Amino acid sequence: MLYSLSSNRAGNVSLGVGIPPYIASWGGESLAYSEGDPYTQHGRSSVGVNRQQNREREAIIGASIVRPDAADKVRGEAKFVDDLSFAGMLYAKVIRSTVPHARITNLDFSRVCKHAGVVCIVTADDVPGENIVHVIYDDQPALADGIVRYIGEPIALLAAEDRRSAERAARLAIIDYKEIEAVFDPVAALKPGAPVVAVPKVVEQRPNLFNAMHIRKGDIEQGFAEADIIVEETYHTGYQEHAYLETQGAIAVPEENGAMVIYGTMQCPFYVQAAVAKVLDLPLSKVRVVQTTTGGAFGGKEDIPSVTSSLAALLAWKSRRPVKLILSREEDILTSSKRHPSIVHYKSGARSDGTLTAVEVDLVYNAGAYQTLSSAVLWRGVIHATGPYRIPHVKIDGRSVATNTVPCGAFRGFGSPQVIFAHESQLDRLADGLGIDRLEIRRINALKTGDRTATNQRLGKSTGVMETIKEAGKRIRWKDRLKSVNTFNEKSVYHRRGLGISTVMYGVGLGGKAPFLDKAGAYMKLEADGSLTIAVGNVEMGQGFTTVVTQIASEAMQIPMNRIHIAPIDSSRVPDSGPTVASRGTTMSGLAVINAAKKLRKRIAKVAGSLDITEEEISARLNEIAQAFWMRNLDPAVEGWAAGAPVSWNPETGLGDAYFVYSYATHIAEVDVDVTTGEVSVEDFVAIHDSGKIINRQLATGQIEGGIAQGLGFALMEEIKERNGELSVKGLTTYRIPTVRDVPSHAHVDFVEALYLKGPYGAKGLGEVPLMAAHAAISRAVAHAINTTITSYPLSPEQVKRNVALS
Amino acid sequence: MKIELIVNGKQQELDSAPGETLLHLLRRIGYKGVKKGCESGDCGACAVLLDDRVVNSCLVLAAKADGHRVTTVEGLAGQDKTGELHPVQEAFLEHGAVQCGYCSPGMIIAAVDLLAHNPNPSDQEIKEGISGNLCRCTGYVKQIEAIRIAAEKMRKSADV
Ligand code: FES
Ligand code: FES
Predict the structure, then answer these.
(1) Beta carbons of A731 and B144 less than 8 Å apart
(2) Residue A9 confidence (pLDDT) above 70
(3) Disruptive mutation site among B7, B46, B100 for chain A (greatest number of A CBs within 10 Å)
(4) Residue B82: inside a domain, yes or no?
(5) Same domain, yes or no, for A706 and A801?
């Protein structure tokens, strides 16, 4: 197995076999591990690589290269969507439903039309194509057609000459409703006779069951019969709002020949392209989507940009002018998709030695009024419900349910944090019940290479979960720290300390639920001066994708990073490359870039040969070679392609290879709980990740630090209450996210790199994992401190005080 | 109404409708580096220096700024061709303090203000200095570090 344990300060320390195999040979076949047997490929190809080259490459892959997009950002010159304007541009405002479930009986826009500056109004009747926001299932109308199903649902649109007129005019709309009985609680919504929320064509079972999924492995009865201890509990989590600093927005610009161009803040340009084409009844080739600098996304800009872009496009189509639609913070919080509130019932059994024998889980996710991404979110929740542990007997049932509430969608972790909260709590309770150390019980059950997951997938070589547990334990000095925590608690009256550990696994990419989306293209052009233009189809949203792709291209092409430019993301430049979600950007686009580089290098090597330029000189003399391309009319452009390794998962049994590879992490948190105020502060934090090869250490560390903060928010403070379909928060005053005062004062972040030989230079995904592990480590630490079972989030001071009283 | 502002050293005479915020006005006249995150004073993305004090420009009426100096993030770097970065900008750039970058302009302005009044802040003081600025991406770790490094650099160059 290839492991390298790396340190924050120095370079990489290899613990296992040999050097990380960065293989590149000009004109050769062996650039990445995407083909053939990776091991023989490694052995064969590394021979031809000289030491000097190795050292230079080492300097690129794994280095903390400063991100090229940071310069514009610190100067205030980066162009986010609201910073752009076009000649003749109008400003849009959405007129939204104020009731959770009703028939619209009358729309009166006469006063709206008379307002100065108003240019155009669009209702469902105007939609030229299908009145649908295409995401996965086609159930969500772009504009409500007769019925509204949640508060905030778009009913009509207006465009005006300026923002103020648009806002004022929108308030003059008169909408009459005949209210229909509504249902807000997912359990109530499943009962026979419950009000029907869901559009009938997208339910598995009436009245409101959107999706049902299950896994059956082994014999659950037998598994529990073999157990010496069984614990059972129900866990609840609420909404989490992304609170990206830049709100949702899009500009639609009509172009010649009936084409439409969309500029916007987004994760998935190809989703937007499909959605706009559908609503305008245009061929896909007439819709071009350009992603603008995106001010955070975290999953929240997976589905909603299809909505905002479709709405802006409808107005642009009708008015024949560019239209800008930017959501206010209030509008964004009230109407954009969020993390699904969950009810997770969990039963687990273990032998007296701590080995797990059986896990049975029933999870219900409140999906809101429309499907959007719920089926995919639920799927990830179901697959991840058992955690990174070896369990012979598994029974999992998941349901996502329609209610008259805001539709939920993707949020970092994508359906997994809810079950992680449960599986980590359960494991601690088993450990406590059996008198086994809580770190130890994770070691006892952690999956290893060759083990089978809950879906019966055999794990490959890149399975570093055990190493994350060991390393995290070592860093915090687990045993000593437990002692010092106990000593502290013996003496202290008003403060209590706790230590929490959480271990997670994460299936990289879209896996068996949507294998057709796991692909990516890249376009690469050698310019006449030897610089390189690259276009890819996944996006930068702050996570550092552009930098990492540039590093990969630099490595694969053996040219310096400053000679490489990644073009703005534009759907017309590359084939559909799937969404930028599921921590898949680096892996998929990285492989596509490597694939393109391989082709281009072959051509370059040929031309170099004809110029008597030796292999070693190619990088330095690339401009001469590029000139020769130009003079001789040779084709200097190539396309690269990557398709995810095949998965084979059976939806009937829930068994099979769910994802092509998994990333892992272990986090440990030490908290201090003020038992009188209920306030929790995170005193120390260790995060150890296995995401395969880390391409850029500084960016990866930054991702983890940010994920820890979001996880902390989820566990301790972020809260939205829902009453009769109405959300309790209206902005960032009432929706509190972590400030600099709330985050841990210390966080030790490091990596164990169980190389994934089919990924770009051994990399797997990272983006979502830190949030997934962090919240559970923190909540487990609180539970430890106040010696209680915690069953719901967030652990606000009031909740902590309640728990203290119960303990 | 007519108001006069000195924005990043440039004197400007401007029309402003009653009720217009400084944030809106600055963006309207092209200072797009001033970001809008909430318009309720919660996020700090719109922070600018009003004379020598950091303010959330979404909470300041444009009329109130009449006759004052305003510094936006665009005014921090050298205004000549080289456009040399302010030490705080440079430290943010080099030390991984920027991810999506939407909070960066406000955060940098807050840090510049902090260091102007306190050239040698403790970590606790740095935290206080940016406690009005939300960042959803970084977890603040690298921002604190960058401010610490910028402070050191500025002190050194003040010494010579
Ligand atoms: S926009 Fe001014 S504080 Fe958020
Ligand atoms: S870098 Fe994205 S909000 Fe701070």
Answers:
(1) no
(2) no
(3) B100
(4) no
(5) yes
- Tell me how crowded residue A746 is: count the other CB atoms within 10 A of its CB: 11
- Asked whether this complex has an ipTM greater than 0.85, the answer is yes
> Strands A154-160, A564-566: parallel, antiparallel or unpaired by DSSP?
unpaired
B140 and B116 within one domain: yes
Question: What pLDDT, on the 0 to 100 scale, is given for residue A389?
Answer: 98
Same domain, B62 and B125: no
Token readout for A390 is: 């070896």
User: Would residue B143 count as lying in a domain?
Assistant: yes
- pLDDT classification of A6: cutoffs 50, 70, 90: very low
Task: Indicate whether B116 and B142 sit together in one domain.
Answer: yes
CATH of the domain at B99: 1.10.150.120
- Residue A3's pLDDT band, with cuts at 50, 70 and 90, is very low
d(CA A782, CA B133): 27
B23 and B71 belong to one structural domain: yes
Whether residues A612 and A561 share a domain: the answer is yes
Question: How many whole angstroms separate alpha carbon A395 and alpha carbon A84?
Answer: 52
User: What digits encode the pLDDT tens for the residues A336-372?
Assistant: 999 999 999 999 999 999 999 999 999 999 999 999 9
Confirm or reject: Cβ of B97 under 6 Å from ligand 2: no
Domain identity same for A567 and A430: no
Among B28, B48, B75, give the residue marking a domain's end: B75
Q: What pLDDT, on the 0 to 100 scale, is given for residue A52?
A: 43
Q: What DSSP line would sit under A135-195, residue for residue?
A: SSSS---SS--SEE-STT-EEEEEEESSHHHHHHHHTT-EEEEEE------HHHHHSTT--
B10 lines ligand 2 (CB under 6 A): no
Distance from CA of B85 to the nearest CA of A (A): 8
Would you say residue B7 lies in a domain? yes
Separation CA A300–CA A373 (nearest Å)? 11
A366 within some domain: yes
Query: In terms of domains, do B43 and B71 share one?
Result: yes
Residues A599 and A697 in one domain: no
Residue A434 resides in a domain: yes
pLDDT computed for residue A399 by the predictor: 97
CA-B42 nearest atom, ligand 1: 3
Residues β-bridged to residue A486: none
- Tell me: cis bond preceding A207? Omega within 30 of 0 counts: yes
A123: nearest Cα among A172, A173, A78? A173
Structure-model confidence comparison of residues A17 and A294, the more confident one: A294
- CATH of residue B20's domain is 3.10.20.30
Its domain, for residue B115, covers 87-159
What's the length of chain A? Answer: 807
Number of domains in chain A: 3
Greater pLDDT, A334 or A508: A334
Mean pLDDT for each consecutive 10-residue tract of chain B (160 residues)?
95 94 97 98 98 96 97 93 93 96 98 97 97 97 97 89
Of residues B36, B108, B138, nearest to A82 (C-beta)? B36
Instruction: Confirm or reject: Cβ of B136 under 6 Å from ligand 2.
Output: yes
- What pLDDT does A542 receive? 82
Q: Per the confidence metrics, is the pTM higher than 0.90?
A: yes
Mean pLDDT over A734-761 rounds to 91
- Token pair in block for residue A162: 């300026």
DSSP state at residue B73? G
The domain of A585 spans 31-60+519-643
Q: Is B71 contained in some domain?
A: yes
The closest of A571, A424, A580, A581 to A505, measured between CA atoms, is A424
CB atoms within 10 A of CB A368: 31
Residues 674-733 of chain A with CB under 8 A from chain B are 698-699, 701-702, 705-710, 731-733
Residue of B84, B99, B112 to mutate, interface with A, max A Cβ within 10 Å: B99
**Beta strand extents in A615-679 (DSSP E only):** 637-643, 649-650, 655-656, 662-674
Q: Say how many domains are in chain B.
A: 2
